[in-house]
Amino acid sequence: MRILIVDDTTTARVFAQKCLANIGLHDAEFIQAVHGLDALKKIRENPPDLILTDLIMPEMDGETLLKELKNDADLNHIPVLVVSSAANVARKDALMAMGALDVLPKPFSTTEIYNVLKIFLEPKEGSDAWGE
User: In angstroms, rounded to a whole number, what is the distance separating the alpha carbons of residues 92 and 55?
Assistant: First the structure.
């Protein structure tokens, strides 16, 4: 499984990766991007199975990245989890309406991210956790 973590702060990317490893995704291939344009390039080269993105970043913010992905027929199936200190209830509702898997406040806890992603962690009969 490939997971792309998009944040302009190194500390936030490392924290997210550690949380994902702690909930059982330690064998995942983690890719990092520093903003939305960097992420789009990496996504188009080799699409990940899951994207975690911050909202406020230079070059291209997370909301624009989400819109780009959800408007691309080849990429709109990729789940996008938004993590941001800038999210409020109205913004969360708008991001969910755009196709975000969920929106978590920053910093999030291991429990919070587990609760969102546990559906991907439970193996389905005859497949791995991601249905492959």
Answer: 11
Question: Which single residue is written with the structure tokens 């789009």?
Answer: 40
pTM of the predicted model, to two decimals? 0.89
Alpha carbon separation from 67 to 16, 40, 62, 102 (Å, rounded): 22, 11, 9, 14
Alpha carbon distance 29, 31 (integer Å): 7
Please tell me the distance from the alpha carbon of residue 128 to that of residue 40, in angstroms, as a whole number: 26
Q: What is the CATH number of domain 2-118?
A: 3.40.50.2300
Task: Quote the tokens at residue 12.
Answer: 């936030």
- With bands split at pLDDT 50, 70 and 90, how would you rate the model's confidence at 21? very high
Specify the pairing of strand 50-53 against strand 29-33.
Answer: unpaired
